[in-house]
Amino acid sequence: MSTAVSNFGSLAQQLISAGVVSETNMQTAQTEAQQQQIGLVPYLVENKMADAYELANLLSKSFGDPLFDLNALEADIVPKDLVDENILRKFNALPIFKRGQQLFVALSDPTRIDAIDAIAFNSRLSVATVIVEEDKLKQRIETIYADTMQSFSGFADSDLNVDFEESNEDEDEDGETQLNTSVDEAPVVKFINKMLVDAIRMGASDLHFEPYEKSYRVRFRVDGVMQKMANPPVQLASKIAARLKVMSQMDISERRVPQDGRIKLKISKSRAIDFRVSSLPTLFGEKLVLRILDPSSAMMGIEALGYEPDQKEMFLEALNKPQGMILITGPTGSGKTVSLYTGINILNTGETNISTAEDPVEINLEGINQVNVNQKVGLTFATALKSFLRQDPDIVMVGEIRDLETAEIAIKAAQTGHLVLSTLHTNSAPETLTRLKNMGVASFNIATSVNLVIAQRLARRLCGSCKKPIDVPRQSLLEIGFTNNDLDNPNHIIYEPVGCNECREGYKGRVGIYEVMKVNPEISRIIMEDGNAIDIKDAALRTGFRDLRRSGIMKVLQGTTTIQEMLRVTSE
């Protein structure tokens, strides 16, 4: 054994000698694990310095403890009431069964004598250990103990890491909800508070509270992908729904029809986050979805959105025109609102009068006259637009063009000296123009009012710390749209996700993929001649237009995203 190896502890020495971890990695792992106050085995697995199964197999042979497969463990037989959950989470341990006065406990690190002693003292039983894989152990602990009330009440103010103000009311004088975290409040309240804070920390865009016949599920949408976060007891479904409805000022006595609400959550003296809340009666209770509306997203600037230089130039050129219409299109959750607000924020100067009609207003911007559409009292997009035109606006934003009346008023505004920004639900930029025609708008009005159409999607962005190059067969790349010039360029490298402690599954954040189509004289002529979307796209391609697939391929070649993500968001 080398001198360097002998300087390590017994566990580290065995791992190095067996070739599971290199000496360099072990030196880093021991230092970092000690600083982060976590075990060596969890650190090695989380940072992908060692394979979980290979590690468990070696430890089982070295220490003589049996290797146990947690996939074979039935949650119903776990004696989870014998040991305090906080102890198990602290030491990353799981009791799997009890025989007489002996408790069998699953550990990923058999050197944790302190864990064995703590469990034995707490349970008043003798403890026998079995070795399991670290990643499976962590997952099973979360799954099994998510179903207990104890998982709701085990966190304190210090765990939340934000400044909550206590209040007996649901709102303060500014209309901002204060999360009450006093020691005697209900477990449901603490659970919801934790879910809101976790969602903000993780950068989630939506929270889904979903009741089913025999279970209840909470999921977050992070970077566009749904992830299960908790399984509270199904008996709490009505209490969770009631608490969220109180926070968002809904009628808690009405459970038969959908409702909309809003939570303005003050998490510190200088920062507040808005949640748009929607309730939906389902077969087994009310499903509630919270959309996180962070005002900082509107302040990112156009540079952060992912436009290619020529696309950004066309967008800015259209924004600087005194009149006309800019349309942004894409499915729900594709970032249309952020693009709209980014454009509005650029135009928001002291010299301009800006009015917006939205359903609902998602982000409050100082200096802009924002109107909440309210169908119940007759305040529709069309009604708001008519009022705008009597108030001398320079710029008008319509949250969405849904009907012919709104479309015609918006186009009239664009033709009479106003800049109009709005959204439509279509799949591509060329289809947007034919969609307006199908709604009943005259071809001449479309051709003379629309300046620019942007179609967009959001793809997960590769983590810059752990992505690695990948070789893909040339023919496979050509079949999905890559060109020979793309593949012959030595600067173009294709990457795949890996995963590290700075990201989630190799991805960190999202990036926009765009079609930006300028309505030139040729496209205007095609519209007036009642041409279809294919004719419009062909004309646009002759001027250098890139469709979503081509724009996505450019993001892959730049190392920004992966082929899988590009195909996921650009497949028709």
Helix content: 25-40%
The gross shape turns out to be globular
Radius of gyration: 28 Å
Which regions contain 5 or more consecutive residues with pLDDT less than 50? Answer: 1-8, 147-175, 180-185
Task: Please give the largest β-sheet.
Answer: 7 strands, mixed
User: What class do helices, strands and sheet pairing give?
Assistant: alpha/beta
Structural account:
A hairpin with a 5-residue loop joins strand 7 and strand 8 (272-282). 38% of the residues lie in helices and 21% in strands. The chain is built from 24 helices and 18 strands. It is globular and about 85 Å long. Mean pLDDT is 84; it is low at 1-8, 147-175 and 180-185. The strands form 4 sheets. The chain has a 7-stranded mixed beta sheet, sandwiched between helices. With 572 residues, the protein is α/β, with parallel strands linked by helices. The longest helix is centred in the middle third of the chain and has 16 residues, at 187-202. Helix 16 crosses helix 18 (443-449) and helix 18 (443-449) packs antiparallel against helix 21 (521-528).
Describe this protein with a few key phrases.
single chain, 572 residues, alpha/beta, seven-stranded mixed β-sheet, six-stranded antiparallel β-sheet, 24 helices, disordered N terminus
Brief summary:
The protein is of the alpha/beta class and 572 residues long. The chain has 24 helices and 18 strands. α16 packs across α18 (443-449), α17 (429-439) packs antiparallel against α22 (533-541) and α18 runs antiparallel to α21 (521-528).
